[in-house]
Design a protein that fits this description.
- About 40% of the residues lie in helices and about 15% in strands.
- It is globular.
- The chain is an alpha/beta fold.
- The protein has a 7-stranded mixed sheet, with helices on both faces. Strands 9-10-13-12 form a 4-stranded antiparallel sheet.
- The protein binds pyridoxal-5'-phosphate.
- The site of pyridoxal-5'-phosphate has 13 residues, from helix 3.
Length: about 350
């Protein structure tokens, strides 16, 4: 296996991991710390995190009747789902490129992974290829990120509906970037018993807490919950996430700002000669340079103290592609001016 590499980011303008660049308003920090004083680190956390689930159900607009499974980040939920279906002959299907942990955890469990390339012109699902792969492999799980990482686009809702309807196995809709997409398949959840929706608070602005959730029918959630380690959401995360989600106005404000800055950054990047930037409904932009190689751009930015993600080694149509997270307006400006200098 290849390790999941994360860059050492000390001292850099960090635009590589889709984090929210903003800290909390001081009054929020004070209230949060007051709350943490009541936490009991000598006791195990609530194994079911009932209070936190209530807040998620309410703020996440989870349809009544749907149940929740919590994970230590959605990474852990991916692991739980895949452990549940791991058996000889099982196949996991996902479009490529997509979030790398689907493949990483699948192969770590000895399960077969099948990746179907997206359409090269617009990163839509290649439906003839998806249909054929579904017929041929009858996958136990299909992962669809909505919006997709690293391409940033939303797949067509009709295509997703067809896949969910035709699939005999589970379809996981990964809405990690939901806060930036201004759309969600959550209202459709009760309609499809084999569809589960996964979200995380990471990209929203709480990456350090490690909290993801899976919403769906009880028949699935109850079984998956048997594989979850009993105290996977620690007491500080339960308390902090509850607090942040109940006071989510400041997070919404930050999200709005990031969306605006994303659209701004998209315009500026698109105006640079030799750069192709792809439309995004997430908090990052995928781009490509016809003038400079991705490796050269990546290292030049690194020398200037800016860390982004170089996707060149992924090959395929990610050759010479880079992914930049939307930062603060100041960070975006520094990034742009360096890129501008390279494309003058
Ligand atoms: C970042 C990301 C995740 C992982 O989120 P965590 O909750 O931080 O583990 C899941 N899916 C996609 C598509 C992502 O980009």
């Amino acid at each position: 296996m290849q390790p999941y590499k994360t860059a050492d980011s000390g001292g850099y303008i960090k635009l590589d991991a889709m984090e929210n660049p903003y800290s909390w308003p001081p009054t929020m920090v004070e209230q949060w710390l007051d709350r943490l004083r009541e936490c009991k680190p000598n006791r195990y956390p609530d194994p079911q995190a009932i209070a936190l689930k209530k807040v998620i159900a309410q703020t996440g607009k989870i349809p009544p009747g749907s149940k929740l499974l919590l994970g230590n980040g959605s990474d852990e939920i991916i692991q739980i789902i895949l452990m549940a279906i791991a058996r000889p002959g099982a196949v996991v299907l996902a479009p490529e490129p997509c979030f790398v942990m689907y493949r990483q955890i699948t192969i770590s469990l000895g399960i077969e992974y099948v990746g179907i390339p997206l359409k090269a012109n617009n990163f839509d699902l290649d439906m003839p290829a998806m249909r054929s792969a579904m017929r041929h492999h009858n996958p136990s799980v299909i992962f669809l990120a909505y919006p997709n990482n690293p391409t940033g686009n939303l797949f067509a809702e009709d295509d997703i509906a067809e896949i969910v309807t035709d699939a005999e196995g589970l379809v996981i809709i990964d809405e990690a970037y939901g806060p930036f997409a201004e759309t969600s398949l959550m209202p459709r959840l009760p309609k499809y018993p084999n569809m589960l929706i996964m979200r995380t608070v990471s990209k929203l602005g709480l990456a350090g807490l490690r909290l993801g959730y899976l919403a769906g029918g009880n028949a699935w959630i109850e079984q998956l919950d048997k594989l979850r380690l009993p105290y996977n959401i620690n007491v500080l995360t339960q308390s902090s996430a509850e607090f942040a989600l109940l006071n989510n106005a400041f997070l919404d404000e930050q999200t709005n700002q990031i969306r605006k800055d994303r659209d701004e950054l998209y315009k500026w990047l698109g105006a640079l000669p030799g750069i192709t930037v792809f439309p995004s409904r997430a908090n990052f932009l995928l781009f490509k340079s016809e003038k400079r190689g991705a490796d050269e751009i990546f290292h030049a930015l690194l020398n200037a103290g800016i860390l982004i993600k170089n996707l060149n080694a992924s090959g395929g149509f990610l050759k010479n592609c880079l992914r930049v997270t939307v930062g603060t307006p100041e960070e975006n400006k520094v990034f742009l001016s360096q890129l501008q200098a390279l494309h003058a």
